[in-house]
Amino acid sequence: MEHTPAAAWLAEAASAAQHQGSGYLLRVVIVVMFLGCAFTGWFLLRGYKRKDD
């Protein structure tokens, strides 16, 4: 496995994205948004637990 610099990998990924269209990028954005919303909801709602001591 050859080591390629990050800039070369990024340029290759951008070139491949032009051939594929926006479908893959849109899927990644939706998944990241969903995970971010779930994490934010968990983070905010965890403070509302009641301790019955």
Architecture overview:
The protein is an all-alpha fold. The protein has a domain at 20-47. It is 72% helix and 0% strand. It contains 2 helices and no strands. The protein has helices at residues 6-20, 23-45. The longest helix has 23 residues, at 23-45. The N and C termini lie far apart (58 Å).
Question: Descriptors for this entry?
Answer:
elongated; 2 helices; 53 residues; mainly alpha
Question: What gyration radius follows from the Cα positions, in whole Å?
Answer: 19 Å
Extended strand count: 0
Q: Please state the average pLDDT score.
A: 78
Main beta-sheet strand count, sense and barrel state = none
The number of helical segments is: 2
> Helix and strand succession?
HH
Termini separation comes to 58 Å
Low-confidence sequence ranges: none
Percent of residues in beta strands?
under 5%
Q: Which structural class do the helices and strands define? A: mainly alpha
Q: Determine the fraction of residues in helical runs and give it as a percent range.
A: over 70%
